[in-house]
Prior knowledge:
This protein has about 800 residues and is mainly alpha-helical. The protein has 29 helices and 21 strands. Its main location: membrane. GO terms for molecular function: chloride channel activity; chloride:proton antiporter activity.
Amino acid sequence: xANITKKVSWSSRADDSNATGEGTPLLNGSEQxxxxxxQSGGSISQIGRVSTVNMDEEITSxxxxxxxxxxxxxxxxxxxxxxxxxxxxxxxxxxxxLEEERRxxxxxxxxxxxxxxxxxxxxxxxxxxxxCFIDIxxxxxxxxxxxxxxxxIEKFTAGGGLSISLILxxxxxxxxxxxxxxxxxxxxxIAGGSGIPQIKCYLNGVKIPRVVRxxxxxxxxxGVICSVAGGLVVGKEGPMIHSGAVVAAGVSQGRSTSLKRxxxxxxxxxxxxxxxxxxxxxxAAGVSAAFGAPVGGVLFSLEEAASYWNQMLTWRIFFASxxxxxxxxxxxxxxxxxxxxxxxxxxINFGSFDRNSSxxxxxxxxxxxxxxxxxxxxxxxxxxxxxxxxxxxxIRYIHxxxxxxxxxxxxxxxxxxxxxxxxxxSNACQPLDVVQGEDYPLQLYCDDGEYNSMATTFFxxxxxxxxxxxxxxxxxxxxxxxxxxxxxxxFLACWTYGLAVSxxxxxxxxxxxxxxxxxxxxxxxxxxxxxxxxxxWADPGKxxxxxxxxxxxxxxxxxxxxTVILIEATGNVTYGLPLMLVLMTAKIVGDYFEEGxxxxxxxxxxxxFVHSEAPPTSHWLxxxxxxxxxxxxxxxxxxxxxxxxxxxxxxxxxxxxxxxVSNANxxxxxxxxxxxxxxxxxxxLKHKVFVExxxxxxxxxxxxxxxxxxxxxxxxPIQSIHVSQDxxxxxxxxxxxxxxxxxxxxQETSLPRVYKLFRAxxxxxxxxxxxxxxxxxxxxxxxxxxxxxxxxxLEELQLAQT
Length: 802
């Protein structure tokens, strides 16, 4: 492993001599934990190859003198956090599981399948209700703010004193954002941002703490309402995806662990494998509710979110997406007092493009569209790079909740100030009859019967502004207005994403792209030499659509799903080919310079994310070189005290243990016979499933799978299990509860093959054995995720206690 690049260094906040990482225990480096073996009738060995970097060192006396200064949290993207655990997406086929499956009749399996469809329907229905609630609340609060500010502006326009209107606008925005930031920063930080990176990690098999809790859902919904009403450059689509995922995780379990209510339904689905599939459906339902795009929601879940898929899951997810869209449309139509007409396709309605000659495209425009895709890729890479360094700054210096709230309020005030200044100096006056049904017209210094289009762009909800850029007739926007708006909105969106508020990036990206795309559409007729060509290019709306797709594709790097989402949201399949070409170009160009925005934030959080393929240059590595060894193992019949001591050892905190068996005379080394999880051992200790008790009359009823499902997902800590001194001397038979057929690989298996097996099956542990079926190591998620292709070839990330 000599040709693997190892680069780990960070600056110490107290001692510059440590900047090179001297004295720091590195992975496979200078310091290894000791190999220990305890004799208790069996063999137990402790993992000793993987050592860690401890980021929580004690403060020295020299550091103590710097307490008065602002603290800096050191961060290095070459580290992989040990705080993230894996989910068990591989079913443990022990005797209890197999007995239950064999007892179940064909009718029982059909009932389970029907239950899955029912759960997906409930997920879609509840997600649609949440989307409807968010839309109504945002509309009411935005309208209230608009009328208050408009009345104040009209009062001071003629007589002067517009600075008071500016202060009022900034205060209102800051007040809304303050509420949204406080509930996120102080009560549920995981509810910040869009939530898409977290859900993507969850579906990949990473256990993100509190990501699908009821409290997270409540804070997410309230936070996104405050963020949008507060005028931040944000969207609702990301939080809707996260909200749908939380709904799915809760509904599918038939109970609420937060409310301590068990409805005694859907008990069969209380395991990570089933919950994962429902969370995929919830994410798709969120997309469908946001854009009115059921097919796009399915493709988004497939392309961007889920790491595991099957054919039946596709139809169930589509069903959930359809129910979500229908529910939203129905209740919005009732709210709008028009229950007979379902005219709202989603929270984000871009309207339908008219099928006329000006809105269609010609083949000679394809190269121009591809060029716009390249521009979107470049701008997306710039956006991601700026946001990356801004996030690094936030991690180091703005990590306290009070500072996070202050930053969010500052951004809200700056956004209001910049918007007001642009409106004040803008002469973009348009006749009111040009735009039918304008929601928030503001006259300001325009003549009677006219409105300021710049003011409308900032006062409108972002999705309404996108719709106007798509469909307003030529002449509705001045080129200078669009140019200044694009630049300003670009940097405001980059600054806003990553604040401690619930916010998405889809709509801001679409709005930025629609602005510069429409600008290109306006400029093209002026460059044409003939009236006929100018007539063909007369509709700038189609260039706004292409620009919006290019900008969003350049930031998030979505292709197929985004194409279908935009087609469904605009109601026109004509632009399917150009949109696909534009998004592919934006992805190729953007990937050349920088990763996608969600991948960047996953990496910044040091999450052990397992990608779809192993690094291209990793074939020379084998399982023996990447595995953790030696391995902590248990005998088939193990002493209770030994199990308790090992589970209580905070320095290891292992979650999977091979079970081995020796021959009668004990001359040959023990061989693998199964695998058992920490959560299973805790349940066994809690119910005191000991051999001595089973032989006596003190034995309880036979343990069933229901006992494990009742403890899922918040298994009690080992510290809460009381074991007396006499019970420590008892023995525990693991035969009935261990998985007797765990997945194994020979130690000479190449890393790409190990990677493919681990990723495709959703494993948490992969046992490495020798030719005699003896355990030589264990491959976990972190063992694979620490290898990635960097600028200097194959690099090995270091494991850190962050």
